[in-house]
Design a protein that fits this description.
It holds the Pfam family OMP_b-brl_3. The chain is 7% helix and 61% strand. It is built from 6 helices and 40 strands. The strands form 5 sheets. The protein has a 22-stranded antiparallel beta barrel. A hairpin with a 2-residue loop joins β5 and β6. The radius of gyration is 27 Å and the shape is globular.
Length: 738
């Protein structure tokens, strides 16, 4: 097992040595380049192969096992290699079992309380194409970092670092197909081919996905206007279809043991949309002016209920290209650097015709939009080793995003808007890390300057705006490692700046009774988090305090000049305080490996809504219980259960949800062929019901994305090797904003 630890340390580059693993003094070049002689490379490969075989034998025959989950500094580490997780067919299947991850209403995964994480693959910011074809069996471990250091962007809430095994030489390949059945079918096919030598790595990937799912989304709003209460509702049924074509080519050249360069190209072609049918209804105040039922039950309505039908067809196209170049260098024993350059181009267009019929009357609305964006970015990272136990990391990044677009609608209120965006960001950071005995610590500071400019090209418009953000973001962490205990205390500040769509002043058509407008007065959201983590044997725990200033949320308003309509917009609110507690336990009993976790978050938040002080205090909690059964002849079974009480999140109250899922897989031919079956949400209980109470509007909604599914995955590997690409994607943050 000691050999595995050494190999894992060799895998890391200078970017790995952040606040989370600052004790490991590694170089700024790739894993292969730390070797000085061919014989040592060959000896390490032979030793690694031997260690793999011994570990596989131990996983079956011995009763003592390394834990699947552990704490490292302030990060939760999930060990994948030689665990049941290594037999999951895709990365998404693995991430579902990471403690602290949870599924959202549309099926995506996020970190509980911190949103979607930024994912790094061997400290390269990963793209969707790379994650799609990642071979799970090559993953050593996954770190969930809830307090990222100063080197990470200030908008980053959490980071997932995926560390993979070393690169082998030769030709390799992998084919994978899966079919997922819910109410409709989704299928995916991919092919990866590559060639690796001691100096050069060349890899290509192509993947195609036909993604389909149905949505049932009923909504209802009770609107309190000056002349009485109005009721608006809709029963929405949507059918979604999207075709993805993703490609990737990368070239990695180890020039010498001190220098490594590479280039990567990625392309994405996407076509998709939704056809939707709605039955809408509305009720005006009754003539007598009597109060209507605030519970919004149609059978108790006093006024006359009216109905009409609506249909819409939305179809979009996206084309994007991304080029990444990098240079890794080791200038001396104590100094290393990394440089990354990126260019990306993104084009989008979509159209949405809407037809609304009420009796013999018909109203047609056509909404269309298109946009073109270019992104240029660069990043430099430098590591200076002061001694074996002390180091300094510093660096900076710069990005430019330029684009223009056009939105148009046949609705009178919306009209046509042509606009141009110009966004530049400059950032610098400095971080120190050290250790003494059982103590280790780190402290960092990050500075960001962001200029955002929005120009309405249609006419001289008050919508034109320019904003400048200058902010400092401190962070620190301290860790105590004792024989039986692990303690960690960390602090982190982050920000979330409003997007152009939230600021621009545009109006978006929702229905004949509802519009969405932007708010050019929005301020950035600043978050402060203090986290304490502890581990004792098989148990891990966490306590976190979070303060959020100027939180941005949806609000509903009733314009005085149009009382039969209501609008939704964005608004900053006063501070929100959250108190979170988390506990995880896992153990091995022969062939059975159970793992249980539970977390609870209490929110303190109240808002002054037109003179009415509304309290949104409340708790949310969730729990899960995963079970893996390792059986003879390379069979594996899994059974999982999770429950979420929904609770109070911001201004929204959610109803409880629960999920039963199971899986089975079998491997042949030394792992080259694998067949996996999984069933998710067996009893169709993943329905997300939510309700919001405000002074003027009570809004309720159900989001049913049909998350229940049965999935069959077949994977065939030409060789159990992988390509090497050590470039960091410095433009991913800007791409995600689009």
């Amino acid at each position: 097992m000691k050999k595995e630890t050494v190999l894992c340390a060799m895998l890391a580059t200078a970017t790995c040595v952040t606040a989370q693993n600052g004790k490991i003094p590694t170089s700024g070049v790739s894993a292969d380049s730390v070797q000085t002689e061919k014989d040592s490379i060959k000896a390490d490969k032979e030793a690694e192969t031997k260690a793999d075989k011994e570990a596989e034998i131990q996983a079956v025959t011995v009763t003592g096992h390394r834990p699947m989950y552990k704490m490292r500094n302030d990060a939760l580490v999930t060990r994948v290699r030689n665990t049941p997780l290594a037999k999951e067919p895709t990365l998404d299947d693995v991430l579902k079992h990471i403690p602290g991850m949870k599924q959202t209403s549309d099926g995506t995964l996020e970190v509980n309380g911190l949103g979607a994480p930024i994912i790094y693959l061997n400290d390269k910011k990963a793209t969707s194409a790379e994650l799609a074809h990642l071979d799970v069996k090559l993953i050593d471990e996954i770190e969930l970092i809830t307090t990222p250091g100063a080197k990470y962007d200030a908008t980053t809430g959490a980071v997932l670092r995926i560390l993979t095994r070393r690169t082998d030489e030769g030709i390799f390949g992998k084919m994978q197909v899966y079919d997922k059945l819910s109410e409709v079918n989704t299928n995916h096919e991919e092919l990866t081919l590559g060639w690796v030598t001691k100096k050069i790595s060349l890899t290509g990937f192509y993947g195609y996905t036909d993604n389909r799912y149905n949505v049932h989304q009923p909504q209802e709003a009770l609107v309190r206007a000056k002349d009485g209460e109005y009721l608006f509702g809709t029963d929405r049924h949507g059918k979604n279809k999207t075709n993805y074509n993703a490609t990737e080519l990368n070239f990695d050249w180890l020039i010498s043991k001190q220098h490594e360069v590479g280039i990567q190209w990625e392309g994405l072609w996407l076509n998709g949309g939704r056809s939707e049918k709605q039955q809408q209804y509305y009720r005006y105040p009754n003539p007598a002016g009597e109060d209507t039922n605030s519970e919004m039950k149609l059978s108790d309505a006093d006024g006359e209920m009216k109905y009409f039908d609506a249909e819409s067809q939305q179809w979009g196209h996206q084309r994007s290209h991304h080029i990444n170049l990098f240079h890794l260098a080791k200038w001396s024993k104590h100094l290393s650097s990394q440089i990354y350059l990126d260019y990306a181009r993104n084009k989008d267009s979509d159209s949405q015709p809407i037809t609304e019929k009420e009796g013999s009357e018909m109203q047609e609305t056509l909404n269309r939009s298109n946009s073109n964006y270019d992104i240029y970015s660069g990043r430099i990272e430098v590591k200076q080793l002061i001694s074996d136990k002390h180091s300094i990391n510093y660096g900076g990044e710069w990005s430019l995003m330029e684009g223009k677009g056009k939105t148009e609608s046949s609705a009178n209120m919306l009209g046509t808007t042509e606009y141009k965006n110009h966004d530049t960001k400059t950032a610098a950071y400095l971080q120190y890390q050290g250790e003494a005995g059982r103590w280790s610590w780190w402290a960092g500071i990050r500075y960001e300057h962001l200029t955002s400019r929005y120009t309405n090209l249609s006419e001289e418009s008050p919508d034109n705006m320019e904003r400048h953000y200058d902010q400092w973001f401190p962070s620190f962490g301290i860790t105590l490692n004792e024989p039986s205990w692990h303690h960690s205390l960390s602090f982190r500040t982050t920000t979330a700046r409003p997007s152009f769509s939230q600021l621009s002043g545009n109006i978006y058509y929702t229905s004949r009774f509802q519009y969405q407008i932007s708010n050019p007065k929005l301020q950035p959201v600043n978050t402060y988090r203090l986290t304490y983590s502890v581990q004792w044997k098989d148990c891990m725990g966490m306590l976190r305090y979070t303060r959020i200033d100027h939180s941005i949320m949806y609000v509903h308003e009733v314009p005085e000049d149009k009382p039969v309509r209501y609008v939704s917009t964005f608004m900053n609110f006063n501070k929100i305080q959250k108190y979170m507690a988390y506990l995880n336990w896992g153990h091995v009993f022969g062939c059975w490996r159970p793992n249980a976790h539970a977390s609870i978050t209490y929110q303190r938040f109240s808002a002054n809504d037109y003179g009415e002080l509304i309290s949104y205090n409340g708790a949310t909690w969730n729990a899960s219980f995963d079970n893996y059964f390792t059986l003879p002849n390379d069979y594996q079974l899994s059974l999982s259960y999770s429950f979420d009480n929904g609770g109070q999140v911001g201004k929204t109250k959610f109803r409880p949800t629960q999920n039963w899922s199971l899986g089975a897989n079998k491997s042949w031919m030394d792992g080259r062929l694998q067949v996996a079956f999984s069933a998710n949400d067996l009893f169709h209980q993943q329905l997300f019901k939510e309700r919001t109470h405000e002074h003027a509007v009570d809004f309720s909604q159900t989001e049913d994305y049909k998350l229940w599914s049965y999935k069959l995955t077949v994977t065939w590997k030409f060789n159990k090797r992988k390509g090497r690409y050590n470039g960091l994607n410095s433009a991913e943050d800007e791409l995600n904003r689009l």
